[in-house]
Fold this protein.
Amino acid sequence: MKRLLHRILSFFFPHPCLSCGMPVDESFFYHLCRDCAAYLASSGAAIQSPCVRCSAETYHNSAGLCYDCSLKEYSFLKNTSLLSYQNPVIRDMVLSFKFESDYLTGGDLARLLEPSVREFLNTRQFDIISSVPLSRRSLKERGYNQVDYILRQLEIPHTGLLERKDHPTHQSRLSQKERRETVKGQFTLMPDARGLIENKKILLIDDIFTTGSTAEECTTTLLAGGARETEILTFFRA
Ligand SMILES: [Zn+2]
Ligand SMILES: [Zn+2]
């Protein structure tokens, strides 16, 4: 329904807002009008009562943990996600940035995330900030790492610590169980990372937190290499 409305409005306005269809003033956001951008960045795509451990937007127990977290242990301290991937506008933007190389959308996402990323970093202390890498093949296919792109837009310095092996199947097409199994052993420490991470608290940044298996696998690799602890920051929570 929203898509149909969007198409009708785009006939009259050549460059409508992705969310409400009104004309966009491109000087600020490329695909969103100012009102929708402000709404999405504040409450519109907020994660409602997130789990204190994994940021899941769901019912949780008196300790603030979701059902999954009340049963399982992660090796990382916690995951903080900033915006909800359940929001259809956010989801469309993430998909077109990730799979259609739409850099203008990438810039819009960076601007939407900016206030919450800055607030998170200003209130926390980490020895090293790093991002979850793509495999060499995915990086070649896509041309860029979407997390690094957003971090560069926001001028947040970060260090590469991990390398990722290629895998024959794309993760997004797999079930939860298959995902956990395919990420096993996918990450290795970069040759000169060992000296850097010894006894350090590391913030690892990724785009979407789904099952936590990628964050878990990266953490296991970093801890085995001598890191003290890791925390995860993800832009979006599935
Ligand atoms: Zn709008
Ligand atoms: Zn949880």
